[in-house]
Structures are given as C-alpha cells and as structure tokens.
Write a structure and sequence with these properties.
mainly alpha, 9 helices
Length: about 280
C-alpha cells in the first residue's frame, strides 16, 4: 500500500511539473496566468494521485502495462521543455537555447514542404504575421513533430521487437482498458481491431485536420494567438502529441487483439487435440 501511494504521489508531482514547466521557464509571466497554472497543476496532480492510488482503474488506459504511459509522458515533457527553452531564448538567449533554435530551424525547414503538417501549421498564422513569429512557429513545429515521430518509432520497436506487453506477464484487459466494455455486445476481437484502425487513421489525419479547422474557423471565431509564448507551446505540443498518442493507442489495441487471437487459436488447437 505504501509503495502504491508513493508511486501515485510521484506521478502526481511529475504531472504537476509538466503543466508548470512553461510558466517556470518563461520569463515575465504575469500573476494571473501563474495562479491559473498553479491551480491546473494542483488539480492534475490530485487526479493523477487518485487514479494511481486506486486499485480499480477509472480512465487511464494501460496503467499496468509499462512503458506505454511513461513513453507518452516523457515525449510530451521533452517537447514542452524544448519549446519553452526556445521561447525563452527569444528574450534571454543562451548557448543552449541558441543550439535548440538552430536545430529546430533545420528540422522545420526540412519538414516545411507543400501539404506537409508543418506547412499547414505555418499557414495557420495570419498573413500579416511578422517573419520572426512565423519562423518561431516553424521551428517549434519541426522539433515537436520530430519528437512525436521518435516516440512513435520507439513504441513500434517495443511492440514488434521486444514483445510488449506480453513480456511483463499476464495482460489484464479490465485494468489496462477501463473504458472498454467487453460485455457491450459483439465479438471483443472485432471491436478491438476496429478501434485500433480508427485510432491509427485519426492519428494520421489529425496533424492535417487541426490546422485546417483552426484556419477555417478563424473568420468566425477569435483565432488562436500563437504570439503568446505559453499559447504557442501548448498548441504546438498538443498538435504533435495527440496524433502520435492516438496512433500509439491504436497500435496497442491492435496488439491486444493479436494476443487474444493467438490465445483463442491455442485454445481451439488444444480442444481439437483432446477431442481427437
């Protein structure tokens, strides 16, 4: 019990640190935004602690199948830290922020080709946006997209080469997929495969859909101001992280379906041998 509580508290503190990172690294944060950040970090920490301190799962998927959630957390934290340092370098440049900005510029220019997700993010900016702001968005988008691709490739290696999640022992569907109801009707295997395909398809499409939707609604609603550093950091991080996270979830559910299929096949083979 103490070990579970300690682990839950550590996870809660890490989530709070993730949310507070932009406010901690960016200079000149106003008091109102700092108070909102502290409140959000506190609420997120409490919810994370309650989730991981409970024996019964609630909403967090693959809770007992590391390193699925750890990989997603590390990739998001790394993205936010890097983008925060780049934004900080616009005000107080250092050798580290300059190196990250140079790397991001190279990646952004390499990924900024017609119809690419990075190009669509750049096109979200107003036509009269300053060149420095456009270049900063391109740099941030290039770095964030690369981090998401690395996280996705790492997870594919874990699944296909290292045999995740079977190498950690028995896989409990109820604990690791609390939002999936096996008794909802229909074959569990078919539903898992269907959900896996939907998540992977949406994950591939979201980097293209999100900028297009933002651009299309800019005339009807107040457009997102990416000139604010914290808004830019969270917007670009979400744009890169959410699609990769959905693809990883789709791959994970496909892997679970594959494990169920293999178990059924072995059970049918054993039953056939016993009948013979």
């Amino acid at each position: 019990m103490i070990g579970r509580m300690t682990g839950a508290a550590t996870r809660g503190l890490l989530v709070a640190l993730l949310i507070a990172t932009p406010a901690l690294l960016l200079p000149g944060a106003d008091a109102e935004s700092s108070q909102i950040t502290v409140l959000l970090a506190f609420v997120a920490a409490i919810l994370t602690f309650l989730e991981y301190n409970s024996r019964q799962p609630s909403i967090v998927e693959f809770r007992d199948a590391p390193p699925f959630n750890r990989l997603r957390f590390i990739s998001l934290l790394f993205t936010i830290v890097v983008l925060s340092l780049i934004a900080r370098g616009q005000v107080t440049p250092t050798l580290l922020t300059g190196a990250l900005a140079s790397l991001g510029t190279i990646l952004g220019n390499a990924l900024d080709f017609p119809y690419s997700p990075v190009r669509l993010v750049v096109l979200m900016m107003p036509a009269d946006a300053p060149y420095e702001s456009v270049n900063l968005i391109r740099t941030a988008a290039g770095l964030a997209y690369l981090v998401s691709l690395i996280a996705l490739a790492t997870f594919v290696v874990l699944v296909r080469v290292m045999g995740w999640p079977a190498r950690h022992g028995a896989f409990n569907v109820w604990v690791n997929l609390p939002l999936f109801d096996p008794t909802a009707g229909g074959d569990v295997l078919y539903r898992l495969q269907r959900d896996a395909r939907i998540n992977i398809a949406l994950g591939f499409l979201l980097p293209f859909i999100i900028p297009a939707v933002v651009k299309a609604t800019a005339d009807l609603l107040d457009p997102i101001s990416l000139s604010n550093p914290q808004t830019m950091i969270w917007t670009i991080s979400a744009w890169a992280f959410l699609p990769a996270s959905m693809i990883m979830r789709g791959i994970a559910m496909g892997r679970v379906a594959e494990m169920i299929h293999d178990k059924r096949r072995r059970a049918y083979a054993e039953a056939h041998m016993q009948a013979a």
